[in-house]
């Protein structure tokens, strides 16, 4: 290649890079459409189809340039902002790479005391393998006939060796919720005896309050929250634990580097997200509208379902007479799956309104 051609190609490459960079930055101000080649509708992991917000995207793009530095100041600022949101201080907050990491961390903390943990079945189980590996026996308690967490049977399953009780509220995969008064009474009775790991990944989709106001009075109460769901940042991996400062200290001591699991880019996105109430309200409203489209579809098919307080729906296809999952997959809609072996109960995440209309069209033919 001649020198003149090389210079010309280099100049064109730099110009293209500059143009694409500026276009990408401008794109952060609006919804980024998926490329046409991506035709699959993914409704499997309860991800927010609308996020991250424009504010979070811009914050993450801007943060790339400072990623050569450790984000200690951003981590501290995020902990302070979370504390302000929940009525606590940064000393009440542990930051991690998604709430899953912190669920596992809390389970390991409980396992160090040797004994057992009590959890409903089915539920979110990602933390269980690490707990078992570190010596914690898991005692599973069936849900009620209405697919609700059976708090009474969970108390009955506890014994002198019970170190932790796990509750996901609203429940995953069922979408049911424990009324606040019942849950608060349970915490007050059980927390003096064992750690309560309360997974509030989906609380923002419901109208029930968080149990955050109890952490100062009950050091055994550990509340796990995430930016993966309502905030639309599942791939960014940011979560936090809310607990008594003494409990936070013990959890921090189990982290190789306290509060350092999330990247500078992810932290910047989370910091912007937590201030963006308009986006949260929008996502909650859109989720409800899209969920109604799916409810109406199930009603037309005479498929019973549970009214969901989350971003997914749990339904029983026993009397449907067709392969529900296969019908959707034939239309490139993936995600329907069971969490109870031997049954035809399925969970499907809620997408956008347009996506749920495509689900309806596929099922109603």
Automatic annotation (TrEMBL):
Domain Aminotransferase class I/classII large intervals: 39-363
Pfam families to which the protein is assigned, alphabetical: Aminotran_1_2
Key words of the record: Aminotransferase, Pyridoxal phosphate, Signal, Transferase
Source organism, top-level taxon: Bacteria
Extent of the signal sequence: 1-25
GO MF, any single term: pyridoxal phosphate binding
Keyword Signal: yes
Family indicated by similarity: Belongs to the class-II pyridoxal-phosphate-dependent aminotransferase family. Histidinol-phosphate aminotransferase subfamily.
Name this polypeptide is given: Histidinol-phosphate aminotransferase family protein
Source organism: Lacibacter luteus
């Amino acid at each position: 290649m001649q020198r003149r051609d090389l210079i010309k190609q280099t100049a064109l490459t730099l110009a293209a890079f500059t143009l694409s960079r500026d276009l990408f930055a401008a794109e952060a101000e609006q919804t980024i459409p998926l490329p046409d080649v991506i035709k699959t509708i993914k409704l499997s992991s309860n991800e927010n189809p609308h996020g991250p917000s424009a504010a979070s995207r811009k914050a993450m793009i801007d943060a790339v340039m400072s990623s050569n530095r450790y984000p200690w100041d951003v981590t501290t600022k995020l902990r302070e902002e979370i504390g302000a949101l929940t009525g606590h201080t940064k000393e009440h907050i542990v930051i991690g790479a998604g709430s899953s990491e912190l669920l596992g961390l809390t389970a390991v903390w409980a396992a160090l005391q040797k004994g057992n943990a009590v959890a409903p079945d089915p539920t979110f189980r990602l933390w269980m393998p690490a707990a078992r590996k570190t010596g914690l026996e898991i005692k599973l308690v069936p849900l009620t006939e209405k697919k609700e967490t059976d708090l009474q049977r969970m108390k009955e399953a506890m014994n002198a060796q019970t170190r932790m009780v796990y509750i996901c509220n609203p429940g995953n995969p069922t979408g049911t919720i424990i009324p606040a008064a019942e849950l608060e009474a349970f915490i007050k009775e059980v927390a003096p005896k064992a750690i309560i790991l309360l997974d509030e990944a989906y609380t923002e989709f419901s109208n029930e309050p968080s149990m955050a106001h109890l952490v100062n009075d009950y050091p055994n109460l550990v509340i796990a929250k995430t930016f993966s769901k309502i905030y639309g940042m599942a791939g960014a991996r940011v979560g936090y634990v809310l607990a008594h400062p003494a409990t936070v200290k013990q959890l921090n001591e189990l982290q190789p580097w306290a509060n350092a699991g999330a990247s500078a880019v992810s932290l910047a996105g989370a910091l912007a997200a937590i201030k963006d109430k308009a986006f949260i309200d929008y996502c909650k409203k859109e989720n409800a509208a899209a969920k109604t489209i799916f409810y109406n579809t199930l009603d037309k098919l005479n498929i019973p379902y549970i009214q969901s307080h989350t971003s997914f729906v749990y339904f029983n296809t026993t009397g449907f007479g067709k392969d529900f999952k296969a019908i959707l997959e034939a239309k490139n809609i993936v995600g329907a799956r069971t969490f109870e072996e031997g049954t035809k109960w399925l969970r499907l995440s809620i997408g956008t309104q347009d996506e749920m209309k495509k689900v309806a069209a596929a099922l109603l033919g």
